[in-house]
Design goal:
With 507 residues, the chain is an alpha+beta fold. The protein contains 13 helices and 12 strands. A 5-stranded antiparallel sheet has the order 2-1-4-3-5. The radius of gyration is 46 Å and the shape is elongated.
Length: 507
């Protein structure tokens, strides 16, 4: 994990290792192991383990020997020996935990290839390191352009310049063996440093570059996963996953490593299921075929061909029915085989939902609806609503004058007819029209407030040449009228002289 003195200073700058980075799972403690022995005191006279694990850019880690017996802690920057010059890295583990790391990566403690640690990095060393790191992006872009110009089937994925700036390591991926001797010569002439080419796998490339998976978390290979096991499509089939490479592949383009996380649990659970590819049960209502399987819940869904109602059965019941079918016996119908506990479980879940103290969306909506009802309807809808409901709130006959600001209320059902010829009382509605009223007198004026009514179906044709009566529509245009003359007056289709374009004179 991170160093014990890691913290956040004023202004948001992380403290501790002084990397000025982040102090979460993706910061200075990425791919680090937890030191289980850091709080344990060493026996008297016991010398600390002199091998230290140092981490460089990305996920690259190497072991170095502390020959000068420096007092090192996790997060310190140290200068280590290199094939040419020195490199600067971060101490990721010290003490007895490194002994276990050597066994994990199969590195011998007395290996002659293990280099030593020179000193703790000074301020001048850190300045040279920052200067070298600032050139990496520009160098990587130029290196990719040169590799593309030589038509090499390889991809330069990352670059790491040594702390003193005298050496550059190029990490590349390729499907086949690549002859890059000419490329190394061009790199040496272009960058004036020692060139080292390292081939990495696609999973290691994703680990170095980092990223976020579809689960929303940082990639496992760039945070804690160090050993990449083989993943095949059989792991997806065992877990009942559809073979869709777009969903099963990670950012490295290979199958996701997380497919192996729960594989053992699924393999153990599938031992209780029948091994037949086409599973069917012989019942009194016919053959029932398996439609769906839930491995973790140990349930299987069956249905008939003529009835698509799926019935869930536990695996133990399915194995019992299959044994009966082998002995030549037919089992009961699927609905009879379904356990009654499933119904009781649903009822218990419903009662539990009713007794909980949580407020759901439905309850919030019901509260809003109650608030609206409590406020009451609008003024215009109150009388109509009361009339439709047929309420008992009737207007008394001996009421006095209505006070100012008070509503009128609904009309009484036993009120007398409106007097004829007299004016309508103020505030009284006209009411519906009578069905037995006589026809409108012809030629006379229409009474005020009376509608015109529908037009008669037996009215005669409109007289030709005369003016159109007031209020009468023109009617549809004739289909056999001629084309409109260009730049001429608009013909009058109502007159007999429409072919000549002359309009009749009104007298």
């Amino acid at each position: 994990m991170a160093c014990t003195s890691c913290g956040t200073k004023a202004g948001g700058t992380p403290g501790g290792c002084k990397s000025n980075g982040t102090c979460g799972t993706s910061g200075c403690n990425a791919l680090n192991v937890y030191d289980w022995f850091k709080d344990m005191d060493l026996p008297t006279g016991y010398k600390p383990f002199n091998v230290v694990e140092v981490r460089f850019k990305g996920s690259r880690k190497e072991f170095f020997r502390n020959t000068n017996n420096l007092d090192l802690f996790t997060g310190d920057y140290v200068c280590v020996d290199s094939s040419i010059g020195f490199d600067i890295g971060t101490v990721s583990a010290t003490g007895e935990i490194v002994r276990l790391q050597l066994k994990k990566y199969r590195v011998r403690e007395d290996s002659d290839e293990m280099r030593g640690i020179q000193r703790v990095a000074s301020e001048r060393d850190m300045e040279r390191r920052e200067e070298a790191k600032s050139k990496e992006d520009q160098t990587l872009e130029r290196a990719r352009t040169m590799a593309f110009s030589l038509n090499l089937q390889m991809k330069i994925s990352d670059i790491e310049i040594q702390g003193d700036g005298r050496k550059a390591i190029f990490f590349y991926t390729a499907e086949t063996r690549v002859d890059f001797r000419e490329l190394i010569k061009r790199y040496a002439d272009e960058f004036k440093v020692k060139i080292e080419m390292r081939h990495i796998s696609y999973r290691e490339e994703a680990s170095r570059l980092g990223g976020t998976g579809v689960c929303g978390r940082e990639l496992c290979c760039s945070t804690w996963l160090t050993d990449y096991k083989q993943v095949n499509t059989g792991a997806a089939r065992v877990q009942n996953l559809s073979i869709n490479m777009e969903k099963l592949a990670g950012q490295c383009g290979r199958l996701k490593c997380c497919l192996n996380y729960e594989l053992d649990q699924y393999v153990e659970a599938t031992d209780a299921f029948p091994k037949a590819k086409i599973l069917r049960l012989d019942t009194i209502n016919g053959m029932a075929y398996a439609r769906k399987t839930d491995i973790l819940k140990k349930l299987m869904w069956f249905s008939y061909d003529d009835n698509q109602t799926w019935v869930a059965l536990p695996v133990d019941k399915v194995n019992e029915v299959m044994e009966e079918n082998k002995n030549g016996k037919q089992s009961a119908a699927l609905q009879d085989l379904a356990p009654a506990s499933a119904v009781l479980e649903k009822l218990g879940t419903t009662m539990e939902d009713r007794n909980n103290d949580f407020i759901g969306n439905s309850e919030l909506l019901s509260d809003d609806e109650f608030a609206l009802k409590k406020r009451g309807p609008e003024k215009g809808d109150q009388r109509n609503g009361d009339r439709r409901k047929g309420g008992n709130d009737r207007r008394p006959d001996n009421r006095g004058p209505r006070p100012a600001g008070e509503n009128r209320g609904p009309r009484p059902d036993n009120r007398g007819p409106r007097p004829e010829g007299g004016p309508r009382p103020a505030g009284e509605n006209r009411g519906p029209r009578p069905d037995n009223r006589g026809p409108r007198p012809e030629g006379g004026p229409r009474p005020a407030g009376e509608n015109r009514g529908p037009r008669p179906d037996n009215r005669g044709p409109r007289p030709e040449g005369g003016p159109r009566p007031l209020g009468e529509n023109r009617g549809p245009r004739p289909e056999n009228r001629g084309p409109r003359p260009v730049n001429g007056p608009k013909p009058n289709t109502d007159s007999p002289n429409s072919d000549t374009g002359d309009s009749p004179k009104s007298e």
